[in-house]
Please model this.
Amino acid sequence: MEIIVVHDFYLVQKKDATECLGLSSIQKCIVVIRMLPNGVAIDYTHKYCRLNGSTALECLKRFVKVFLTCFESNYLKQPTLTNVTK
Model:
């Protein structure tokens, strides 16, 4: 998670105008992780992590962009012929 947070400032926990801490990086990443494999609806994220729909969607977009930038070459390779025939 640290790698993803370092590459996108949106996913970092920040203070608002009243010096109160906003949403944590963990909350933002957990929402994305629940949405991707489980197909959790955006509306449900408000109950689970206290994120509204637009924030959850923005976190999803940014998380995927950063993930592709950082990990695409290592983990998202095209299958080779030997992988397919096994």
